[in-house]
Amino acid sequence: MNPVDAAARPAPPRINPLQRIWLRELGMERLWLRTPPAAPAIKTPVAPAVGASAPAPVAAPSALSGGAPAAAPQSAVVAPAPAESPSAVPTIAPPAQAAQVSAPAATPAEPPSGRASSAIPASILNRTGPPPRPAPKVEVQEEAPPPIPVAEAVKDANLEQLAAQVVACSACGLCQGRRHAVVGQGAQPTRWLVVGEAPGEQEDRQGQPFVGRSGQLLDAMLAAVGMSRERDVFITNVIKCRPPGNRNPKPEEIAACSPYLMRQIALLKPERILVLGRFAAQTLLGTDATIGSLRGRVHHLKTDEGAQIPVVVSYHPAYLLRSPSEKARAWQDLKLAAREL
C-alpha cells in the first residue's frame, strides 16, 4: 500500500462505551464504526529540471486526420540571469498556460449514504448519562360542563324529584359539613306553609324540620290555632343544610338554596305562609327590613302564575325560647294568620 494513501485514509472514530450504547440504541453502531473509503490521490505536476529538453508535442487528432493543425503549446523560456550576478543559476519561467491553470483543490470524499456521522448530532454523542426515556403522554382532560343553575334544574321537578335534587345538591359549601339535607315535612296538600331559616343540630341529625325544643314549641303554637303538621301544615326552611355552628346563613347560600323553596311554594300552593325569623322573612319578601317592622301586618307573595298568597311574619321559636317575653307578640301573629283564612 502506498504510504501516502495510508496517511490520507481517516482513522476509525474512537468512541467510549457510553457512546457505543447510544449508537446501539439508535441502530447505527455498524454504520458509524465502518471505515470510510480513502479520498483519491491527486497527482501534482512536476516541473522539468533545468536544461532538460521539453517533450515533443503530440499532434492533435485533427492534424492527423488532415484537418487544421492544432496550436502547439508554448515552450518553456529560460530567463537569463541579471548582469550583476553572472554566477546566479538561471531560472525557468513556467509556461503561460500552466501559470493560468491552478491545481484543483483536493475535495474530501463524500461519506457513504446512511453514515451516522451526518445523522447523529454531537449533543447525543457527548452525553454522559443513560439514554433518555420517552416522555409519557399526557392525556388532556376535557373540562367539565358548567353546572346547571338550581332555578333551571328545578323548574319542572315534582316534590319527589325536588327532594332528590336537594339531597344531591352541591351549589354551596354547606353540603360538605351536613349529615342530612332537610327538605321538609307535612301535609300534602297543605293549608299553611311554615318557613324557617335553616336546620339546627337536631334537624341535621334526624333530617326533619323543627324537631327538639323549638319544634315542640312550634307544634304547641300551631295547635293553639287548630293547626297540625300532619293534617294542615307543611314545614320547611329557606336553607336546606345546617350552617356550621348554627351561624346565620350567608347571602350566597340563601341565593343558591332559595329556588328550592320557591319551587315548593309553586307545587304545594298553600293558602297562607307563616314566616319565622328575620332571614326567612327578608328572603321571601325581598327586603332588608327588620323583623320588628315586618310583623303585625299581612304581606303578599306573588307567584309565577299570578296568584297572591298572604304572608305573616313572626319570631322564630328558637328566639322565643331565649326571650319568653316575646311569646305574646308571636301569639298575636298566629291569630292574624288565622283570621285571614
From TrEMBL:
CDD domains attached to this UniProt entry: UDG-F4_TTUDGA_SPO1dp_like
EC code: 3.2.2.27
Top-level lineage group: Bacteria
Reactions the enzyme catalyzes: Hydrolyzes single-stranded DNA or mismatched double-stranded DNA and polynucleotides, releasing free uracil
Entries under InterPro entries matching the protein: UDG_Type-4/5, Ura-DNA_glyco_family4, Uracil-DNA_glycosylase-like, Uracil-DNA_glycosylase-like_sf
Uracil-DNA glycosylase-like domain span: 183-335
Key words, A-Z: 4Fe-4S, DNA damage, DNA repair, Hydrolase, Iron, Iron-sulfur, Metal-binding
Family: Belongs to the uracil-DNA glycosylase (UDG) superfamily. Type 4 (UDGa) family.
Originating organism: Achromobacter mucicolens
Protein name: Type-4 uracil-DNA glycosylase
Segments of this protein annotated with the region Disordered: 99-144
Tagged with keyword DNA repair: yes
Extent of Low complexity compositional bias: 99-108
UniProt key word DNA repair: yes
Gene3D superfamilies: Uracil-DNA glycosylase-like domain (3.40.470.10)
